[in-house]
Amino acid sequence: MGDEITVEQALEALSKSGKKYVPESDLIAAKKGLEDRIGTVQADLATARSNADAQYQEVLRLQAAVKDAETKLSSSAASKEELDKLTKQLREATDGRDALVTQIAGLRMLSIHERTKIPMDELKGKTNEQLSALEEALRLVKPATGGQSFDGGGTPAGGTVPPAKGRTLIKEGLKARG
């Protein structure tokens, strides 16, 4: 039984190699913390999308009402006040839609940033179509099965978190756990 090494010997060898030992429970806590954050961002994104859809339907309804009012105005001289009212409602609905579209884009950028750590500055110039394409690409690409390396050895292929951030994520996970 002289070939066996003890836990203390293994930890000593690990510390001499310059690498750090991170308990599995800490890694699980970090993963749990990230999953909670991604879930929250995705829930917010879904809520914002449903609000935008409702606003879009309202915009379409108001646009149809404006066209109808314009037709009536030309054929029966409908009141200018009603047309102004509908135009104002359309403008307000359009402004509301634009605000929601901006909010959705912000939530999409945040979701992509949380999953990939792409800097927010790089995502800010993207259009909704580009963000949609990026989200779809991220859904299709799956990370490598090896998992994240937190020992300073680098990020494996398909990994999403750089090694310098790993320790920070572990600390955040521990804080979230209590």
Give the structural class.
mainly alpha
- Beta content comes to under 5%
The largest sheet is: none
Residue-averaged pLDDT, rounded? Answer: 79
Counting H and I runs of at least 4 residues, what is the number of helices? Answer: 6
Structural account:
The longest helix is centred in the first third of the chain and has 53 residues, at 24-76. Helix content is 74%, strand content 0%. The chain has one domain (23-138, 159-177): Methane Monooxygenase Hydroxylase, Chain G, domain 1, CATH 1.20.58. By secondary structure, the chain is mainly α.
Summarize the structure.
With 178 residues, this protein is mostly helical. The protein is 74% helix and 0% strand.
For the structure shown, list the relevant keywords.
178 residues, mainly alpha, Methane Monooxygenase Hydroxylase, Chain G, domain 1, rod-shaped
Q: How are the SSEs ordered, and which strands pair?
A:
Blueprint: H1 7-16, H2 24-76, H3 80-116, H4 120-123, H5 128-140, H6 163-177
Helix pairs in contact: 2-3, 2-6, 3-5
